[in-house]
Amino acid sequence: MKKFKAAVIGCGKISTRHLDAISALENVELVAVCDNKEEAAISTARRYGVKYYTDYEELFRNEKLDAVHICLPHYLHTLVAEKAFENGISVLCEKPMSIDFEDAVRAVRKAKEKNLKYSIVFQCRYNTPSQLVKKRIEDGRLGKVKCGNVTLTWARPDDYYDDSDWKGTWDKEGGGVIIDQAIHSLDLANWFVDSSVTDIKSSLHNRNHSRMQVEDTGEGLIRYENGAIISFFAMNNYLINEPIEIRLCCENGTVRLSYDDAIISYNDGSVETAENEPQKIVTYKDGKEYWGYQHAVQIDRFYKSLAGELPLEISGEEALKIQNIICSIYKSNDSKI
Ligand SMILES: NC(=O)c1ccc[n+]([C@@H]2O[C@H](COP(=O)([O-])OP(=O)(O)OC[C@H]3O[C@@H](n4cnc5c(N)ncnc54)[C@H](O)[C@@H]3O)[C@@H](O)[C@H]2O)c1
Prior knowledge:
- By secondary structure, this protein is α/β, with parallel strands linked by helices.
- It has helices at 15-24, 38-48, 56-62, 77-86, 101-113, 128-138, 158-162, 177-193, 295-306, 316-332; strands at 4-9, 28-34, 51-53, 67-70, 90-93, 118-120, 145-153, 197-205, 217-224, 229-235, 245-250, 253-257, 261-266, 271-275.
- The radius of gyration is 20 Å and the shape is globular.
- The chain binds nicotinamide-adenine-dinucleotide.
């Protein structure tokens, strides 16, 4: 069995999901980690028993890598992905692909030119309830989505932003609740509709975060070529993290979906439900519950695609769809934020 050589760039909060998953996979060898904060690089390298770098270009020059996992602030995602492609390395990058649509398009083009794999993490697609809803839309039991509604009411208090040197800024995070938190549920809704976006209207506000620049509240409407509409409301100035909710009205029934469960009520009176099943690849050492547990599934499938055992899922091209929506939400914002 080929053992792929991998490195993780960015040793912050989400990196443990990637590092734990890689460590559990038989066909992947974690070679090194990289963080420009030497302390973070050293402690992560010690924890996982690998080399460390503080400069990703040096990492690319010194190690013969098959893949890198990009766990960096948003504004660095496409820059580092393109450097990896120039060095012949495939990329699994954390969401979002970028804070700029054209940068994302360029990175996709570069991966294609170099014949390398490029995938973006949207682990919520692998939740059991999300998989069931997608399957029922595709097999016709639910049929096409006619309209939907996405709601996110989460808590990201001031200290969440105070603790970061990039979150809450337009130039480094690229936005707030929409690009960072609601991106997952908007991606799910868009994946379910599976049509081209024709128009987006949005209104973004900062209602209760005096020390950050970006929006903590966003609402809007997405129109699709096939006639479907998705409305959304997201805020991260709530006091607790409520379950996200996606409601869909489809040709043959309605859906109520969260990350943990789905209730499908068919027009013929029957009901189908699903609860999220834990993945069996790894027990993560730490992390936030609201990240879910499916990173390891996407990471495992990414390496299976590198091995030629599976087609690449959530490819750069596929992720451009949600990237376009996110960038259009910011562009069409009719408020002054
Ligand atoms: N999929 C999910 O559910 C999920 C959850 C959390 C975070 N994320 C994403 O993961 C990414 C990282 O988020 P985080 O919360 O771990 O952020 P973080 O700030 O905790 O970690 C980022 C790390 O990158 C390092 N870094 C910054 N510039 C660097 C550079 N030039 N070279 C090397 N290292 C550098 C920082 O020192 C820091 O350790 C973001 O894209 C975020 O949106 C995804």
